[in-house]
Amino acid sequence: QVQLVEFGGGLVQAGDSLRLSCVASGRTGSIFQMGWFRQTPERGREFVASIRWRDDSPNSADYADSVKGRFIISKDVAKNTVFLQMNSLNPEDTADYLCAVNVGLGSYDYWGQGTQVTVSS
CA angle at residue 47 from 43 to 48, to 5 degrees? Predict the structure, then answer.
């Protein structure tokens, strides 16, 4: 099992930036891909970004169209940590942000508890 804990959420104003962190523990050797998702009552859960854990190719990161050009996903494999740099935030980015682990056998297998991001207009 992999345990995930997110950090960095908070209340910001439109146009501001936040950097989220997610630290993995447990059986981290099984990680194939890590992703960020966000969840709201209105839209449910939606994909934000993902990155291959042991692949350093430039195209190993993927982004949802809604965040492309504003958000950047990055990793520190040695520290079992994935980051999400969020720039130019707008109220539509308000959500509970969760990180997740894909062990390479299909859908995401492990999920963090989430960290709330609220963007005021």
Answer: 110
Cα(67)–Cα(95) distance, rounded to whole angstroms? 13
Report whether 52 contacts 29 (CB < 8 A): no
Contact call for residues 38 and 119 (beta carbons, < 8 A): no
Distances (CA, A) of 35 to 1, 11, 121: 16, 22, 27
Element spanning 108, H or E:
none
Return the H-helix or E-strand segment holding 28.
none
Q: How do 33-40 and 115-120 pair as beta strands?
A: unpaired
What is the C-alpha separation between 57 and 40, in angstroms, rounded? 32
pLDDT digits (tens, 9 = 90+) for 13-46: 999 999 999 999 999 999 999 999 999 999 999 9
- CA gap 10, 31 in Å, rounded: 27
Residue 66: the pLDDT is: 97
